[in-house]
Amino acid sequence: MERNQILIPDEKIREQYNYMERVRLLLGSGVRKAVVMTFGCQQNEADSERLAGMLHEMGYTIVKEPEDVDLILVNTCAVREHAELKTLSITGQYKHLKQKNPSLLIGICGCMVSQEHRKEDIKQKYPYVDFLFGTEGLYRLPEILYTKLKSGKRQFHLNEGIGNIAEGLPVYRESSFKAWVSIMYGCNNFCSYCIVPYVRGRERSRDPEEILKEVRELAESGVKEITLLGQNVNSYGKDLPEPMEFATLLEKVCEIPGEFTVRFMTSHPKDATKRLIDVMAANDKIAKAFHLPLQSGSDRILKVMNRRYTQESYLTLARYIKEKMPDISLTTDIIVGFPGETEEDFEGTLSVLKEVRFDNIYSFIYSKRVGTPAASMPDQVPSEVSQDRFARMLKLQDEISLSKNRENIGKILPVLVEGVSKTDPDRLTGRTEKGRLVHFKGPEDLIGKEASVRITDVLTHSFFGELI
Ligand code: 5AD
Ligand code: SF4
């Protein structure tokens, strides 16, 4: 697709600012509260910050809980059935809030409702949902909300053509010290299990100057951690009028003055280049943490998943990363119970876990997604078999994680302090460079700053420590 068909023209963005102004006038004075409920990945978190930015611009005060608000916007995920069912059940609970407060507005957007069948479900079975739009319609929230307010009619807008980039929208950032920066949208890979290309469209890269401007502003405002986001960051720049490699973008981001750490996700193993790894190894600003989704360790399953790498090429890449950065934290995603997965295939996955010794894995039982090739593949794996494999894999990984975590006892690590611990109000929590959660006692004015913490004890997924 031509670049100028992807970029939303400035005048269309200005039109939306116009609608924001009109909504503000319509709502009049007085406090109006809105909440954006976010499901799914970091890309969705980043989108929600733009949705909240527009709502804030329209005069809403952004809050975190849906009680006593004037507007609820649910930003949905479609990656697994579990995420969809959870969203539907939570949206179902908002019916009571609407009964208590008939002027409450309820909107739903994002990946789940970008599927036609889900849009129809919401239309028929959730009559109290006032408006709906897909991933493509994000920048049109002001217009959709204005039309709903003005006409009183429910608004249902699904992706008209798929794949745009909207620059210049306001952003309401949840944290003052951690920020997401989307560098690209969409995905071209069509892994056979995955719904993402259908709900988020084809890959399209933001102009590097727009990205660098955003990072510069964040660095100037004192942000300590910047995460560059894309479904497959290693394809960044291929579609630009002047193509640019992701490794080059990373170098340019690191040249920006300021004391901040750079993270990025997600990398597809077939596209992660040696140059990217070399740039990472050479650059102190880049966190030494690499998320590299394996999905399966069986060549046969990788082929039907359409992943386009083999167990051996994955291992070669992982070995190179470890050779260049011996202290790296490697994490991965695994799907268990993909159609046709045999015990032997599953053991291929376990053998990769044993060799690589990931710091952490995000594991999922395969979930059938309507419209994807895998949904109609023969030999869907029975649930009890998947559950059993899943449990065995977690047991193995827990042992690995715990033994790797123990290597940290006694070390003094820099920790970016995120807040007060949710489970123990006497403690603060923060994350190490490698992404491990650390609980320790300390003054609340450390929140948003870096602290030195000596690790005293570890669990499978977190550390305990004392402030130095
Ligand atoms: N079933 C289970 N897990 C899935 N993922 C993506 N699609 C599915 C599916 N249909 C997992 C992959 C991906 C992560 C974000 O979600 O492991 O890397
Ligand atoms: Fe993110 Fe994929 Fe879920 Fe969309 S479907 S929110 S892109 S994980």
Count the helices. How many? Answer: 14
Q: Could you say which small molecules are bound to this protein?
A: 5'-deoxyadenosine, iron/sulfur cluster
> What is the alpha-carbon Rg in Å?
23 Å
Q: Largest sheet at a glance? A: 6 strands, parallel
Query: What portion of residues is helical?
Result: 25-40%
| Strands in their spatial order, largest beta sheet | 2-1-3-4-5-6
- Spans with pLDDT under 50 lasting ≥5 residues? none
| Mean of residue pLDDT values | 96
Q: Report the strand count.
A: 19
- The N- to C-terminal Cα distance equals 55 Å
Q: Pairing-aware structural class of the strands and helices?
A: alpha/beta
Strand percent estimate: 15-25%
Shape: globular
Structure description:
The structure is a single chain. The mean pLDDT is 96. The strands form 5 sheets. The chain has a 6-stranded parallel beta sheet with strand order 2-1-3-4-5-6, sandwiched between helices. It has a 5-stranded mixed barrel with strand order 15-16-17-19-18. Helix 10 (274-282) runs parallel beside helix 12 and helix 12 (311-324) packs parallel to helix 13 (343-356). The radius of gyration is 23 Å and the shape is globular. Helix 13 links the parallel strand 13 and strand 14. It has 14 helices and 19 strands. The chain is of the alpha/beta class and 468 residues long. It starts with a helix and ends with a strand. Residues 79-80, 193-194, 293, 295, 333, 335, 364, 366-367, 369 line the site of 5'-deoxyadenosine.
